[in-house]
Amino acid sequence: MTLVRRSAEHGITTLTLDSPHNRNALSSRLVAELLAGLAEAGEDAGTRAVLLTHTGNTFCSGADLTEAGPDGPQALVRLMRAVIGLRKPVVARVDGHARAGGLGLLGACDISVAGEGATFAFTEARLGLAPAVISLPLLPRLDPRAAARYYLTGERFGAAEAVRIGLVTAGEQELDAILDGLRRGSPQGLAESKALATAEVRRAFERDAESLTALSARLFASAEAREGMTAFLERREPVWAR
């Protein structure tokens, strides 16, 4: 069964995350298929932009906790780099929940839109973790005060707040106009414009990717994180929240 479906129409290649049984978690297989889809779109002369969307009520829930291990942070960094490094714009359409690594994937996209059903939360601190590697594309784009609040509290928020703080570009009603604009761009114009727009994010990757990957791996290996992830999978409160 394919976990990332591909289609193309009028210059837009659509990659659809289709693993609803685990809320489109970033399993090794899903990541591999998504990387392949991005690479294929990058080589396709007829593709002006990539639209990344999803099935089910979750855009992406983050790491697949059943596969959690020391290579997970590195795999997420590779995926985010692939999105940012693609010489074609990547647009995310979210009409469901986005959590943890899913927010990093969202942040790596050049443009994003959210529907009324979208919700967002940085839940890492509740699991004994921190939003380490996902900060690479997010902190250059987020309002600093909002980042502090939502990183620390894990509160859930909706599409309007996501737009206000810079996590999302616009509401879903803007998608057609965005895609129409991208179709009108030349390959060279889009590539060089994207390079300008992502310069600060790319600098963050070059500067901090190694240290934040090490931090994430250290936290995942900790006793607190094991308790947090076990409590999540067992649908109970961790010991520090009782």
Task: Describe the protein.
- With 242 residues, the chain is an alpha/beta fold.
- It has one domain (4-173): 2-enoyl-CoA Hydratase, Chain A, domain 1 (Alpha-Beta Complex).
- Helix content is 46%, strand content 17%.
- It has ten helices and ten strands.
- It has helices at residues 28-43, 72-85, 101-108, 135-138, 144-153, 159-165, 175-183, 187-197, 199-220, 223-233; strands spanning 4-9, 12-17, 49-54, 58-60, 90-94, 97-99, 111-114, 119-121, 157-158, 170-171.
- It has a six-stranded mixed beta sheet with strand order 1-2-3-5-7-10, with helices on both faces. A four-stranded mixed beta sheet has the order 4-6-8-9.
- Strand 1 (4-9) and strand 2 form a beta hairpin.
- Helix 1 runs parallel beside helix 2 (72-85), helix 2 (72-85) packs parallel to helix 3 and helix 2 packs antiparallel against helix 9.
- The radius of gyration is 17 Å and the shape is globular.
- The mean pLDDT is 95.
Largest sheet: 6 strands, mixed
State the end-to-end distance: 41 Å
Poorly predicted parts: none
- Under CATH, the topology can be stated as 2-enoyl-CoA Hydratase, Chain A, domain 1
Number of strands: 10
How many distinct folded domains?
1
Structure annotation, total helices: 10
By CATH, the superfamily comes out as: 2-enoyl-CoA Hydratase, Chain A, domain 1
Average pLDDT number = 95
Structural class: alpha/beta
Helix content, binned percent: 40-55%
User: How do the strands of the widest beta sheet line up side by side?
Assistant: 1-2-3-5-7-10
Radius of gyration: 17 Å
Order of helices and strands: EEHEEHEEHEEHHEHEHHHH
- The coarse silhouette is globular
Q: Beta-strand level of the residues, as a percent range?
A: 15-25%
Just name the CATH architecture.
Alpha-Beta Complex
CATH class: Alpha Beta
